[in-house]
TrEMBL record:
The lineage of its organism: Bacteria, Bacillati, Actinomycetota, Actinomycetes, Micrococcales. Residues 27-255 form the Xylose isomerase-like TIM barrel domain. This is Sugar phosphate isomerase/epimerase. Keywords: Carbohydrate metabolism, Isomerase. It comes from Microbacterium kyungheense. InterPro entries: IolE/XylAMocC-like, Xyl_isomerase-like_sf, Xyl_isomerase-like_TIM-brl. GO terms for molecular function: isomerase activity. It holds the Pfam family AP_endonuc_2.
Amino acid sequence: MIGLGTYAFFWQHSDLVDEPLSLIGAFEATKALGVELFQICDYAPLEAMDDRELADAAAAARDLGLTIELGTKGVEPDRLAGFLDLAARFGARLVRSMLHSADTRPTLAQAEEWLRAALPAYEASGVELALETYEQVATADLLSLIERIGSPRLGVCLDPANVVARLERPRDCVEVTAALVKNVHVKDFAFARQPGWVGFTYGGAPMGDGLHDYEHLLQTVRPRELGVNEIVEHWLSWQGDAETTVRTERDWTRTTVEYLRSHS
């Protein structure tokens, strides 16, 4: 299923715009595009919501017919338990996370211990835990960790854009993770010369205009056949003013959704 994630609304949620979009506003914008899946991912206000606010958000998603997934950072047992509780509130069947958070940088051994402590509750609840590929952890190490634990509810959130910063090739990342992918983050990416020709900037691009060989991902991972959801997000830099940035962000979202719908 194609979905939108919080990172597709990064600037619209930002305090840099006059009227930041609420979470329910993002749900409504998602439904307006004919999309029925939303991943609340690294959305800081979620953890500050009280019971009433959470109930209202969950009810809004249900009323709009949206399936919800969740995303956080870190694998401390208390954090993962908290997001399992949030998953129950939203009826979410998947939580995406990363080994590291702003506060914790566990060794692989520590991360394994924490995951082994947290996973029985996920297994009992039938909720998937997807660990994202990213530059702070070698993809080979992430896969080795997942394979050692061997839980049917533990797998990969595939984001091949992230690993470039570790000098890994996106195509290689796609191929080695394919058998364990439970979620895909969809965005295009490209290099551009910096002013003065003194280096490059690595950033986002409209879907289909960058370096991401998404056809290769579709053929290798087969998300549509296997029921793996594809979540739209962006690396969009500030465009000079709020109006232009928000308009561009919306255009990129529309472009990506149309791209995914036209590629099978």
